[in-house]
């Protein structure tokens, strides 16, 4: 998902990767539904950071769970979270845990230092 959706911007394959009712759990709330996740989370980030790229640092698969440690960076070129573009580079890192159901992502728990890195722009 990280490579296809975030790095290659292949939003069209989300239905192949995620359940319709997939839920993204974030430290400050959650986003319910694959389409809502795309429209309110993924697209705004890609628009505000058009060159954002991520790398997987570690991947652990156990049964229907996948744990991923990653880092990413991009340039703040568009408004995001009520903050105008700064043209500054954002670097952040995190851990995501995916739960799978019938071969697709059903839940995503994401913990990262995005908020702190974004506030520092």
UniProtKB/TrEMBL annotation:
Stored InterPro entries: Cyclase_SnoaL-like, NTF2-like_dom_sf
Source species of the chain: Sulfitobacter sediminis
One Pfam entry name: SnoaL
PANTHER family: ESTER CYCLASE (PTHR38436:SF1), POLYKETIDE CYCLASE SNOAL-LIKE DOMAIN (PTHR38436)
Domain of life according to the entry: Bacteria
Taxonomic placement: Bacteria, Pseudomonadati, Pseudomonadota, Alphaproteobacteria, Rhodobacterales
Name the UniProt record assigns to this protein: Ester cyclase
Coiled coil: none
